[in-house]
Amino acid sequence: MREVLHSVKETLNNGTVLVFLLLSALLAMAGQSETRLFGQYLSRPNHYADGANIPVWILPMTSFDSQVSLPYDESLFCTTTNKNNDNDNDNDNDNNDNNKATPPSRWIVDSNPTLPSSIQVRNEYESSNQKYPLCQKTLSEDRARALQNLIEKRYRHNIAIDDGLPAACTFVVGSGDFDIDTKTYHGGCPIGYKDYDGSFYIYNHLRLIVRVNSYGHVVHFDIQPKSIRGKEEWWDQVPAQVHHHGQNHGQNHGEELVANELSDYNLTVGKTKSARTTEPAKVTANETIYFSYQVEMMTSDLRWSHRWNVYLTENHLVPPQVHIYSITNSLLMVVFLGALMVNLWIKRLNMTAKLSHHQHQPLLPKSADDDDEEEGVHSSTVVGFCSCCKKNKADAQKWRLLHGDIFRPTSTYPMLLVVLTGTGAQILSSILVLCPLCILGIVSPIYKRTLLVGALGAYSLVGSWVGGYVTAQSCQALQLSKDKEARARASFLTSALFPSLLSIVHIGINSWSIRMNSPSTRPLFPDVLMVMLAMGVFVYQSYRGAEYGFANPMTPFPTATSDTIRDIPIEPNVWKRWWFRVLPYVGNALILFGIFYVENFFLMRYFWYGQFFDAYGYLTIVLVLMVTSSAAISVIWTYMQLNQENHSSWWWTSFAGGASSGLSFLWYYWSTMHTFTGGGDEGHIIPVGAAVYYHVVTSLVAIGIALSSGFVSFASSLFFNRSLYGSLSDGE
């Protein structure tokens, strides 16, 4: 019992319990705004019998341009105040003349402040073809200007059903039997569109299509927005054409749908112009907008467990062969680099072995009679062999001459090199831990907030500790471990460098969102408190890793460092040219960018378009290929430097060679800003705030890639030099 109490006391003293309490509080604060509904990735299905209510959730409006979400504006659209009077069909104070009987599929708004605004749709198949009014709005000049501003910035409605299944926005293009459904499974449905003549139109009618399987599980949710002007066409009449249970799906008889460009996705969407008198609802002052909806219930054979497949694959918009071909191309590149590295290694070892064999081979005894006969031939053979041997020996032993200087610590900012390599190890280890969690479904790849919580956990528990350990080992390699102050400073800077950048950017973005009245903001004080908790956990874990690294001394270098510094010979003319010096960095950057390009493109669409991303298996394979390629390129470049007897610069050049990949990604991010924030429209004016936000976030991503690749290159070169000189003794 005394031993148990002593163990508990020791555990409390070393702070393990404290760090887990801080980590629990940090993860709880990071995910506190994630509601119960959208926090269940592996939730159980909800069964809806006939007459049951299916909740429909109205989420904040989002835009690809401004990246600032806005709350559902009741002054521009129908109010979200809950009405308990079943005979009151008026959802807006501006509409007091419409008091018809409430239809069965009436929208009922939940006023619970702890959940998003929700709407319940009654599941009754016999009335699923009806269209019902919501409210009417007479636009003032201010309201019309506000709506036009939202449409100009391409804000979109985000609606989900059941336990968070998002709506697939469908636009019908064509007419009659040749209707084509164009769907987008991410980003919500647009509020309206801007015509070629500069006029603004609003989608005021929503066609809700809910698909339920035989078990009563909601498996799919479609929304078809339409812009319809006037009351007489849709407000008071029920259309004659009825679509029951998936029959005649997508057909709208008697309507002509004209294509209109939606620049967000470069797709075509339907702008409805009825063959009778229907016109789109124009957003102008003193214009009355009639908001309405219709519900269609359809049966489906899809299983509930497979309902997310169509969202994750964008209905097979991108075939899996794209990822496979990209991985195959990257694999061939890695095989080529590996073969080149192995070829150089084997060639050099064979040459060294041959030279060693000729040096130790004894001369055969010869008779006196043979001496006179073979004197001329023997003399010419020896001279030829010796000249060739001297040349090959000189070429083969260039790197061998550096055994006393190769591991001499660099004098150029050694502390900075230690901190950068430790930070790169932090980031890389966190990513390599997070990807398997996403593959196993422990961390949801669908909801970004759960992904954020998983990233914080991986960075806190694994990344910070690994970063501290790598920092300790690097300090020993660069002979900084003898100074206790330098050890503490290196550990602290490693733990706080990249998290500090993230924290500053996060608080700045949150403050900007508060100023813009975005619903996704957090109160400033809890936000700062969360950052302080995170920094405390990161620093503690980094110190624990550094403590373990200093407690386990690094394996001594295979060769001793001489007291005198060997002079570096004059470089050949080709090495003095700037393009030859830059060539390895450019090659490394282009190769790593080519390997990661495809997955990087889909990740950018995931973060900026809201497109779902679930190819974490392919992403893990690509990351492994990137690590392998970066290591191979670093080894080849280091070997070329050693053959030039350059023993002082390989520390920094190995790290800079891998870190150069961040420049290629930064160039790609900045050059494609209009693609990810402007919908591919080069002439579209991006707001200043959105442009600054995009550049800052992508710069952080590029810095993370650069630090991770730099760590891999540095560690690979150090391991290569250890292996290369490990077979040599100090006397050789």
Automatic annotation (TrEMBL):
<feature type="transmembrane region" description="Helical">
    <location>
        <begin position="324"/>
        <end position="346"/>
    </location>
</feature>
<keyword id="KW-0472">Membrane</keyword>
<feature type="transmembrane region" description="Helical">
    <location>
        <begin position="524"/>
        <end position="543"/>
    </location>
</feature>
<feature type="transmembrane region" description="Helical">
    <location>
        <begin position="690"/>
        <end position="720"/>
    </location>
</feature>
<dbReference type="Pfam" id="PF02990">
    <property type="entry name" value="EMP70"/>
</dbReference>
<dbReference type="GO" id="GO:0072657">
    <property type="term" value="P:protein localization to membrane"/>
</dbReference>
<feature type="transmembrane region" description="Helical">
    <location>
        <begin position="615"/>
        <end position="638"/>
    </location>
</feature>
<feature type="transmembrane region" description="Helical">
    <location>
        <begin position="585"/>
        <end position="609"/>
    </location>
</feature>
<protein>
    <recommendedName>
        <fullName>Transmembrane 9 superfamily member</fullName>
    </recommendedName>
</protein>
<feature type="transmembrane region" description="Helical">
    <location>
        <begin position="416"/>
        <end position="444"/>
    </location>
</feature>
<feature type="transmembrane region" description="Helical">
    <location>
        <begin position="650"/>
        <end position="670"/>
    </location>
</feature>
<dbReference type="GO" id="GO:0016020">
    <property type="term" value="C:membrane"/>
</dbReference>
<feature type="transmembrane region" description="Helical">
    <location>
        <begin position="450"/>
        <end position="472"/>
    </location>
</feature>
<dbReference type="GO" id="GO:0005737">
    <property type="term" value="C:cytoplasm"/>
</dbReference>
<keyword id="KW-0732">Signal</keyword>
<dbReference type="InterPro" id="IPR004240">
    <property type="entry name" value="EMP70"/>
</dbReference>
<comment type="similarity">
    <text>Belongs to the nonaspanin (TM9SF) (TC 9.A.2) family.</text>
</comment>
<feature type="region of interest" description="Disordered">
    <location>
        <begin position="81"/>
        <end position="113"/>
    </location>
</feature>
<keyword id="KW-1133">Transmembrane helix</keyword>
<feature type="transmembrane region" description="Helical">
    <location>
        <begin position="492"/>
        <end position="512"/>
    </location>
</feature>
<keyword id="KW-0812">Transmembrane</keyword>
